[in-house]
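This entry is retained here.
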Amino acid sequence: MLNVLYEQFPKSVRVCGMSYPIVTDFREWIRFSELIDDESVPWEVKCRLMLQWYQKRFPDDLEAAIYALGDFLSARKLYFATEENDSNEKGIDKPVFSFSDDAGCIYSAFIDSYGIDLQTVPYMHWWKFRILFDGLPEDTEIKQRMMYRGMNPKTIKDKAERKRVQKIQQQIALRKRIRKVNDYDIGDMFA
């Protein structure tokens, strides 16, 4: 696990024992996640496009190369101490935010909470962005939207409150289902 208090954020990924420099700016990784979520792009095309996140050259083992990018996107070394912890990830059945749908909320939360204008910041490492995004105060609009989207109204006993939550969920519903890439999806690309 990476300790951000004294270790630098990585600028490369390791594939088959070799280090490969990658693009690390948060804007590019938001584009990467949007590419993954875009169901109109076939997986074979996505694979080729994903390799553009490698600088200079990419690994010969394309499957391992895509997995390495997926690990970087998820900030595996930032959030998980060991590979075994992957199975302990909180499985969210439905998406609670979208970089596209919630762009304005995210943008304003960064300005209000950190004084960071995401439009003018020249560079921010993806993992730094992730840490700051995850650390946004619970009273920001994006965190409130995430909370409501993650709620299961069926668990609310009070009928009026359940109805209120359902109405809020309808108002802030994401426009499309975000597809989360898993190991099976990546494996199917190379089958």
User: Anything to note?
Assistant: Residues 12-89 form one domain. Confidence is low (pLDDT under 50) at residues 82-92.
